[in-house]
Amino acid sequence: MPTTFKLLSLFLGASLTRSSVAKKDIVLETFGDPDNGGHPLPATHSWFALTDPVMGGVSVGTATALDGLGIFVGEVKDVPSLSAPGFIAMQTRGGWWPDLSSCEGLQITSLASQGYTNYKLSFGTTHVTGNSPYARGYKAPFEPGDGVYTDVMIPFTDFSDNWDAATGEILQTCESDNSWCPDDETLRDMQRFEIMAEGALGKVDLKIRLITAVGCDDGVVEVDPNPDDNIQGGRGQGGPIGSGGGSGGGGRGANRGNGFSSTDVEFVGNITPEILDNGDIRIESWPDPRHAWFALNDPVMGGQSTSTVDVKDDVAVFTGEVVDVPFLQAPGFIKMETRGGEFPDVSHCKALKIKMRTPTDYSGLHVTFGVHHAEETMPFVRGYKAPIKIGKSKKFGTVKVPFEDFSDNWDPKTGEIVVECKENSKHCPDEATLRYMTTFSIMGEGEDGEVHVEVMSIDATDCEYEDLDTSINAGTWVGIAFGFIFVGIGGFYLGRRSAGYLSVSGKDASNFGVSPVKPTQPLTSIRDQNNANVPDIL
């Protein structure tokens, strides 16, 4: 065969091979509908709402994965101190993402009402040097179907990580300069994904059926090969429990996992407490945690503190370093945090009990829960906080923190209590928060230094109980009750909503034979009230 013909044959063969490479679409999220679009997959990520966390933003939003729909509702309002629109977002962090570096773009199947049009998709955590510390990830606008479910495809070439932090509008497009295009590192593992409403005032009502990556190579793995290492809803985000990443230098690709306060809303929590043999109520324990825990570092003024959260030897390990925020020349903060999920009613208890140890000499540890805001404090001072008094030790010990040590009036720079609960009872944890905490975190703040904390369990202790009425079987709801199956962020939970007060579960009641003291307000209304007050927590 002549050499020229051989070369031509090889060239044509290679061209045909390239042009005939099989392509496929990859489902990224079905929001829990096993039949959605013919794709038998559960909800694969924990979704939560995020609202403008800086300068006292007052936008409100909720995010729910329910019956095969992602439901994103709320209202974008002006940030009072800026006189400009804030934002709300439906976000997920961590978990497992397929390698999308061979794909053409993303497709979102959605329906919008209320006439709001400033929607955007964002993913990743890259940061452009010189841009606002809040401007992270690649972003692109999209227009959902108006009153009808519509497939909208957004090519990756429409995304850019150079955008205006005030409006979300793209400043430099990927097509004009490919240095702003999504990089392969991010496409191989998005780490963070969000649907946003920003840059315009208005009410938001968006329903999403499906999020898909389109035009991907046929060989791309679609199912997590190591699900035990990436269980976001039960074991965390971004790893076995989660990693907040670091704030390493501020260039593109740095500070992964940093930047915002996240907010779980509209998540039906656990309303049946687990009562231990000693009468304590279990809030959390490892290696089988009830919550998705993640690291969150100082999100203001370009903070450079770093932290991670992981599980090792059946304990939660929270490590990192608190360093000065350069602009403020004062220590920042790091925290191990969870939002929403299963919180029991502990309003009849008197203290927290944390089984933990710390091999480092760090005295800036605090514990905080709830989203309550004291009127005389700054807008972002939310939740009840107390110091954790523990010495350096290689052995696990029990730290008891009375609820009367907590206050919602604390210094945002140091975490130190300004007005104690004992001085003024209006700053003590209120019943609504103790019945459904909404958020919980362990923090390092107000002092520079290395932090290493290992936590085995978190309980409420010194709880008061009433004897069960012998005419009522253990595990029966006391009051008017009805059962239902609900879907929460991060997976399915089987539970019940009650119009009355709560008893212990059948298993726990048979072991302990008691029920909590009757509270004064149904838990469902308290949970909804707490979630409505959840905008931005430092």
TrEMBL record:
This is NADH:ubiquinone oxidoreductase intermediate-associated protein 30 domain-containing protein. Pfam families: CIA30 (PF08547). Residues 1-22 form the signal peptide. InterPro entries: Galactose-bd-like_sf, NADH-UbQ_OxRdtase-assoc_prot30, NDUFAF1. Belongs to the CIA30 family. The chain crosses the membrane at residues 474-494. The lineage of its organism: Eukaryota, Sar, Stramenopiles, Ochrophyta, Bacillariophyta. One of its GO terms (molecular function) is unfolded protein binding. One of its GO terms (biological process) is NADH dehydrogenase complex assembly. Keywords: Membrane, Signal, Transmembrane, Transmembrane helix. PANTHER family: COMPLEX I INTERMEDIATE-ASSOCIATED PROTEIN 30, NAD(P)-BINDING ROSSMANN-FOLD SUPERFAMILY PROTEIN. Residues 224-259 are annotated as: Disordered. Residues 44-165, 291-410 form the NADH:ubiquinone oxidoreductase intermediate-associated protein domain. Residues 233-256 have a biased composition (Gly residues). It comes from the Eukaryota.
